Input
Amino acid sequence: MISQLDPPASRSRDLIADPADSIDQVPTPPETPKATVSPKTSSLPSGRGEWILVVDDEAMMCTIAQLTLEGFGYHVLVAADGVEAVDLYLHGEGKIAAVISDLLMPRMDGPALIENLSRMNPQVRVIAASGFNDSLASVQDANPCVKGLLSKPYSTEALLRMLAGVLSGEPHP
Output
């Protein structure tokens, strides 16, 4: 059983025991607390069960993004770096609706990940996230698959609105 205290990277490895398995065989993640609907959160966009791949080497950012997205109706896969993300995307390509990726990570950074994913699927929708705004502008200019930019740390509202816009095809600066 996967505990809520397990690091997100280990959760993704536990959820996909064998990389050769397809996403159809991924067990349902454990039940997570749902977002409480209040006047403030009721106006935020929700998902409809779309699969989102969150890629970040900061465990806390992965956990926050995962809990937020799951609480608002998305299914989430988590990767700690680009190498792990490519593997997860490869085996779930047809089901992953969008990728939210940090830019600075070990083993394979965000720009290399985005390049690999765009070669695998030229229609992949990526939201790039970074604490360095210069990195964000240059990555969007370099790859048309980058549909949105998030400055870290980002708010729940920024994350949900950006993701909803990217999934609906709305252009984002």
